[in-house]
Design goal:
With 169 residues, the chain is α+β, with helices and mostly antiparallel strands. The strands form two sheets. Strands 5, 6, 7, 8 and 9 form a five-stranded mixed β-sheet that branches. A four-stranded mixed β-sheet has the order 1-4-3-2, covered by helices on one side. Strand 3 and strand 4 form a beta hairpin. The longest helix is centred in the first third of the chain and has 10 residues. It is globular and about 60 Å long. InterPro entries: Glyas_Bleomycin-R_OHBP_Dase, Glyas_Fos-R_dOase_dom, MMCE/EMCE_epimerase, VOC_core.
Length: 169
């Protein structure tokens, strides 16, 4: 008998580069309700500290300092916000057809209220709210943008329920 030693890995965090760390912390904590677990702080390029050396390993030598903040969702997923002083201060053009990460998704049963709050903080609604299974299952979704142009999606129900057969049938 062969034992499959592969198992599903859990999601730890996502890193998002933003133009203004304080505005991003305000948006994501006040609109999304994410917990601030480390307020914005500066990281300097220095090889004699662990964090400095890690950042040199990741970012190379073409930087001197940046700001970072850490938030967490209700289910413990980390949101790592970065702001680099010399980076481009606008999101790249939305192009889901190119290789790479093109969105993340959050879950909120009150999708209309969340979208209204996103809009009131300067974000955008990219499409109408859509139902996955009209008249069969109460699953809704919508793509939005934060005030910095970062695209994300909202689901009303869990990923498993949305895509499993038989749920709410």
């Amino acid at each position: 008998m062969t034992v499959n030693k592969n198992y599903p890995k859990s999601f730890s965090h996502i890193g998002i580069t933003v133009p203004d760390i304080n505005e991003a912390v305000k948006f994501y904590s006040e609109v999304m309700g994410w917990y601030v677990i480390m307020k914005p702080s500066n990281v300097k390029k220095e090889s004699d500290t662990a964090i400095g050396q890690m950042c040199i390993d990741v970012f190379g030598d073409e930087w001197s300092e940046f700001e970072i903040a850490h938030l967490a969702t209700s289910d413990g997923i980390g949101i790592e916000l970065f702001s680099f002083p010399h980076g481009i201060k606008e999101a790249p053009e939305f192009n889901p057809f190119n290789t790479g990460l093109f969105h993340f998704c959050v879950q909120d049963p009150n999708i209309e209220e969340l979208i209204d709050k996103i809009l009131s903080y300067g974000g955008k609604q990219r499409m109408p709210i859509r139902e996955y299974y009209p008249n069969d299952k109460p699953y809704k979704m919508c793509y939005v943008e934060d005030p910095f142009g970062i695209v994300f999606e909202i689901y009303t129900h869990s990923y498993e329920l949305t895509y499993s057969s038989g749920a709410y049938s």
